[in-house]
Amino acid sequence: MGLFLLDHGAGNVQSLANSLTKLGYTDFRWIRDAQDFADMNAISDTPPALIFPGQGAFHTAIQCLHAHGLFEPLQRYLDSGKPYFGICIGMQVLFASSAESPGTRGLGRIPCQIGRFDDTEKAVPHMGWNSAECIDTSDPTTTEGVSSTSHYYFVHSYCAKYDTSVAAAEWAHSTTQYGQEVFMSTVRQRNIFGTQFHPEKSGTAGLNILKTWIEQSRTGRTFAPPSSLFRLPRPPKPIDGFTKRIIACMDVRANDEGDLVVTKGDQYDVREKADPSNLTSTDTATLKTAGAVRNLGKPVALADKYYASGADELCLLNITSFRNSPLLDQPMLAVVRVAAEKIFVPLTIGGGIKDTVDPDGTRRSAVEVAGAYFRAGADKVSIGSEAVHAVEKLRSANGSGDGTSAIETISKMYGSQAVVVSIDPKRVYVDPTTYDGPYKDELVYGNDDGPENERGRAWWYQCTVSGGREMRPVSAVELAKGVQKLGAGEILLNSIDRDGTGLGFDHDLVLMIKRAVSIPVVASSGAGAKEHFVSVFKETNVESALAAGIFHREEVKIEDVKTAMQEAGFNTRAM
Ligand code: 1PR
Q1: The domain containing residue 114 runs over which residues?
Q2: ipTM exceeds 0.90
Q3: Family assignment (predicted)?
């Protein structure tokens, strides 16, 4: 069997290539234009099998298929009866149309329209790990390796609702519940199979699906005609398998020797401090390390370790990107490339996602910089300082984006699910009896049972840029609302006051931002114990929580956090 991957030009296809390499299928070829399709039979001495991976907007995918001359050859390929596996957008294009792009016609294989998730009672996009339950489990050769005891990684705002009264339900192979909505998580009929989730980002469970499909395609599938495949779909079981995500974050920068290391700050200060009470005039070792950048390990080795111990997602932040960071000189690109070859859960890369200029004077747009990270294997990019500047501009333009910000250009090209905004808020303490500033409605009052330095005080959350070095006249709430409007798909919510303190997440801040937006939020900064994860999930209903220091110093293991969450009744991802 010849294995082919369709690259329509606007998706992250590197992750799939890495997964296949990991599984030992290194002899795949890319299909990028009509000629590649025409050559398919000639260059393959055995029957072909085609995978179409991708993410992003429906109209972008269809437009790209047309623009590269791929639409008609793909239709003919599907007609030929040869095996096809569509992933995420590669599954959605099989449908007649999508509410995401009225007027754009899909491949029309599945006779219904893709709809949007309802965001009144849950965050949209549906981002994270969920279960998938096969409609018919009686014949193990038709499950394609999809197991109801596993979790798979989803990231999408539009879905094929599961409705047994319409003909499209014949295509349902497995269903998934998100909130109160049930949708088709996999479709299958004759030679065509598709997953709404990303098997290439779903750890071992996802790799198993890819392997099962390739092996079945290789040994020759027998495809029953549609009529005999049709079984009356039974009503889906109301199982909400959606899990809370645990994210391990690595702040990366060059140390004083020029080596790229994972560091970790206290309230964003990443340099070792000398404890004067321990210093003597002869204590040269302590004097030497004082002021040095803290070194907690190598980025790829740590990423590998966290993947193996069950992290649901990993985040790599280049924390010195506020300096000039030309695309040609981004050491993080190499880190991402190597990490993505070993890690099969989502990878977010942040720092320096902005318009930049190479040393030779070549201008690089933020979308080009992001594209370089996606091609290296990143799944999402995280934008910090530029997001603040974009919302300031949005405010001065009376709330309308002009389409030029990094958030807008990247989400248009790669989909909003690929754009995370990292917020670095810092508390501004005020006297509530005299405060007359614009953020009166956003004041928070310290609890009597909270940390000592907060009791009896009031504050609002001000946004910063350049890693907390500069305060900007924007509140965290204003920023969150603004970036959602501009097209961000997720918020990574840090807290400079809590970072590295181990006091627990800032629940007031998390609740405030959760209420302000309908996109998923990641609670970050301050985790000091496994109980802190349980309490932030219980008290704020946030979708995911991130920690750095306690994982790097091995004070708490990811496995321990997940056990505590299960004991508290939360769904967690099965490895
Ligand atoms: O502004 O788009 O170039 O992005 C820069 C990125 O680098 C931003 O995401 C910003 O948050 C991050 N950053 C910049 N300086 C620092 C610093 O620490 N000096 N790190 C920094 C932000 C915060 C979290 C940390 C959590 C959890 N780090 O990443 O991992 O607070 O820590 P904890 O569990 O140990 O408390 P741009």
Answers
A1: 2-242
A2: yes
A3: Belongs to the HisA/HisF family.
